[in-house]
Design brief:
- By secondary structure, this protein is an alpha+beta fold.
- It is 43% helix and 13% strand.
- Strands 1-2 form a two-stranded parallel ribbon.
- Helix 1 crosses helix 3 and helix 2 crosses helix 3.
- The protein is elongated.
């Protein structure tokens, strides 16, 4: 069984509007830091990680074999990539098997 959680992060500051970061992705340290170190992002990640910390044991206990977490933004190259990596790192730090796939990062 597969379950899904989805979040749109277009409310976060967009690195696209900085000419230096426009052609980079959320995997590049400059973009990642721009996104992740923002105060709003920090509050968002704390809340989202808390949600996962509460929900994931339930998914495991119910025998769910997969959970898809979709993170979207305007172009799929900056904010969503940085946030997806941060969430993946959080899940891995909790001992969960997690894979991060960025569908649009190379577009």
């Amino acid at each position: 069984p597969i379950s899904d959680l989805m979040i749109d992060v277009r409310f976060l500051p967009n690195p696209f509007y900085d000419p230096q970061m426009r052609t980079m992705t959320g995997n590049d340290p400059l973009v990642r830091d721009f996104v992740i170190e923002n105060d709003v992002t920090q509050k968002f990640l704390a809340a989202w990680e808390n949600l996962l910390d509460v929900a994931m044991p339930g998914y495991v206990a119910e025998g769910k074999s997969h959970l898809s977490i979709a993170v979207g933004c305007t172009g799929g190259q900056h904010r969503s990539v940085a946030i997806a990596a941060a969430l993946n790192d959080h899940l891995l730090s909790k001992g969960l098997d997690s894979t991060n796939i960025n569908r649009d990062v190379d577009k």
